[in-house]
């Protein structure tokens, strides 16, 4: 199924996996809306994207801002929601409120987007973002693990509730995006080398490789209720 002329909304499309997905969708002739919080990141992304792309400033946890993304849009074909950060912290040493933003982004944020998108869709797809943590939690990432596991539950349940609209999720492993370089900072080289030594394919993923999965989930009309893992086999070791 071609994405030519399709209207695609990517919430979290100004960077990393979302940005690469916008780029690949535009290459196929789609009309793309990218949303994110930072105007600067959106402008930079728009500068580097070629094709029919519109940007909207919106924080996914703000329901009114999410409505703005869809204003004037009568038909939506595909939605991709990579927006969301990584909240770390041992639960005994971290104030519970510090975990609220991450859970709101992944669960309520996704609901706000879906509730605006679905009335504008008859078929097509919604792709949510999980992560390797859902299968392989690590100490100190418990509440992000809770968030991505909830996304997987949401995916399975919504694939029935929103039928015939398809609902899937991507569960990436380590992917070389600004999210990772910002979190690791000066530890980047050391941590990534340790990770690479462990991953069967001996490297981390590129945002384009994960974006290819997002495009597949939009294009293939028979994939539904699926959590698609792309982690170089890391969850098996
Ligand atoms: N990279 C990895 O190794 C990896 C692994 C597993 C899962 N993931 C998941 O994949 C998704 C994308 O990650 P990435 O690595 O591509 O990160 P990224 O490069 O930081 O991109 C995140 C995008 O989402 C936007 N965003 C973040 N929080 C938002 C919010 N509250 N409201 C609206 N937009 C928001 C960002 O723009 P603004 O900051 O301007 O809002 C940006 O456009 C995330 O959910 C992440 O947890 C990534």
Automatic annotation (TrEMBL):
<dbReference type="InterPro" id="IPR057326">
    <property type="entry name" value="KR_dom"/>
</dbReference>
<keyword id="KW-0560">Oxidoreductase</keyword>
<dbReference type="InterPro" id="IPR036291">
    <property type="entry name" value="NAD(P)-bd_dom_sf"/>
</dbReference>
<dbReference type="InterPro" id="IPR051122">
    <property type="entry name" value="SDR_DHRS6-like"/>
</dbReference>
<comment type="similarity">
    <text>Belongs to the short-chain dehydrogenases/reductases (SDR) family.</text>
</comment>
<feature type="domain" description="Ketoreductase">
    <location>
        <begin position="6"/>
        <end position="177"/>
    </location>
</feature>
<dbReference type="Pfam" id="PF13561">
    <property type="entry name" value="adh_short_C2"/>
</dbReference>
<dbReference type="InterPro" id="IPR002347">
    <property type="entry name" value="SDR_fam"/>
</dbReference>
<protein>
    <submittedName>
        <fullName>SDR family oxidoreductase</fullName>
    </submittedName>
</protein>
<dbReference type="GO" id="GO:0016491">
    <property type="term" value="F:oxidoreductase activity"/>
</dbReference>
């Amino acid at each position: 199924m071609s994405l030519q002329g399709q209207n695609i909304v990517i919430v979290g499309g100004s960077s990393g996996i979302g940005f690469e997905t916008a780029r690949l969708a535009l290459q196929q002739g789609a009309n793309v809306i990218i949303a994110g919080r930072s105007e600067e990141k959106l402008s930079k992304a728009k500068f580097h994207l070629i094709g029919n792309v519109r940007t909207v400033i919106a924080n996914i946890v703000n329901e009114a801002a999410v409505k703005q993304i869809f204003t004037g849009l009568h038909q939506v074909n595909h939605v991709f929601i990579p927006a969301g950060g990584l909240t770390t912290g041992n639960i005994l040493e971290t104030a519970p409120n510090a975990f609220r933003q991450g859970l709101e982004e992944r669960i309520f944020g996704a609901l706000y987007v879906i509730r605006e998108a679905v009335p504008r869709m008859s078929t097509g797809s919604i792709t949510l973002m999980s992560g390797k943590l859902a299968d392989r939690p690590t100490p100190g990432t418990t509440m992000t693990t809770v968030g991505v596991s909830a996304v997987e539950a949401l995916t399975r349940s919504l694939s029935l509730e929103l039928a015939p609209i398809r609902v899937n999720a991507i569960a990436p492993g380590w992917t070389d995006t600004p999210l990772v370089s910002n979190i690791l900072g000066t530890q980047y080289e050391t941590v990534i080398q340790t990770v690479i030594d462990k991953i069967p394919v001996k490297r981390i993923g590129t945002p384009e490789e994960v974006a290819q999965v997002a495009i597949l989930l939009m294009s293939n009309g028979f994939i539904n209720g699926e959590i698609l893992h792309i982690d170089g086999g890391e969850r098996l070791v």
